[in-house]
Sequence to fold (308 residues):
Amino acid sequence: MQSPHISVLLDEVLGVFHGLNGTFIDCTLGYGGHSGALLEQNKNLRLIACDKDDEAIEFSKKRLENFGDRVKIYKSDFSGLIKILSTEELKNVRGILADIGVSSLQLDKNERGFSINSDTLDMRMDRACKFSAADVINSYSQQNLAEIFSKYGELANAKALAAKIVSARNLKKITSAKELASIIGAGRVNGRSVSPAILAFQAIRIEVNDELGELNRLLESIKNANLKECKVAIISFHSLEDRIVKNTFKSWTQSCICPPNAMRCECGNDHAIGEILTKKAIVASRKEIAANPRSSSAKMRVFEIKGR
Fold:
């Protein structure tokens, strides 16, 4: 069954989890590209997966149905999946993957409102949620808009951009992504080959779906799951996300967590749970970027949990 979404870093993911036995958790199932390839490669692997998008779940159920009872799929945000699994299920987990980007289908479907060319203004990954991009754009204060554009979009002109949006919505409610992109304007951000509209849309999407909060909660749930001999791979598409993953993995290697000014260790010096397997983030090859330009911002970091 052909997927409408191209899985990024697929060969690299297969390399990380080659020969895996036991249970694999795909925290962001999407359209089943990574999971299907991993189940095909590793014949003794069982999959537990989740997604928030009903359309993606229905597609993946059909795509993966030939793997029978090797597959279990939940509708859940990725930070909540590990919490609902039994202790017995977690004992057998040997791999975890989270690809925390937006799928190509979500970006390309007009009615999802993710694209700057969309006739709607939505951006909800879970369409059952009430809060959408239209709520952010039409109800947030000018100060709050400027904060998310600065923090999540890293836009130097965040205040001016917020002022333009508030001025426009005072005349007429903003109802489409196309309209919003027009208000933001064309051009390029200094020193970068991306438009301010793309970065502003990225910031709005992160706000609507609480993406950084979700990532932090996922990492915390993994740390607290008492896993043993488990590889964790996180694929991110934003510098803020990558920073969170990098810093969290680094903290997981620290045996002593006493304050820097402590005279001596009082924490037990046994807090390290494993090692970082990627000194630098794994990025897409030139060949992959040529075939799928959206992979150009993907970064994967891998950690191996040994357990305490």
Summary: The chain has a mean pLDDT of 91. The first strand starts at residue 22 and ends at 26. The CA atoms of residues 211 and 230 lie 24 Å apart.
